Amino acid sequence: xxxxxxxxxxxxxxxxxxxxxxxxxxxxxxxxxxxxxxxxxxxxxxxxxxxxxxxxxxxxxxxxxxxxxxxxxxxxxxxxxxxxxxxxxxxxxxxxxxxxxxxxxxxxxxxxxxxxxxxxxxxxx
Length: 125
Known about the structure:
Helix content: under 10%
Low-confidence stretches: none
Radius of gyration: 13 Å
Number of strands: 11
Mean pLDDT: 93
């Protein structure tokens, strides 16, 4: 059974840091693109960052470049999102997704096969 289990969300003041984790089942994790999306109230879902778990290619939304870092741990089948210099506008539910379809685009939610349940990040000013 495919599972993506997110953790690490919480509340933090502006300028603070959080690290999100996404633990995946082995067949979901191997040699695929995984990504983090977020959705704030009243806003469209946004692709935040993505990583190819074998080649370690990464992609970032302009809004988080220089502040967020996506990484992976093959031994743990886990993808991380280190979020530094957090801003109130980063407040959202963050979702882990996996298995980008061929010809898909990392910033398209619907191009991924699997989605986690989400973890809430709240940044106060």
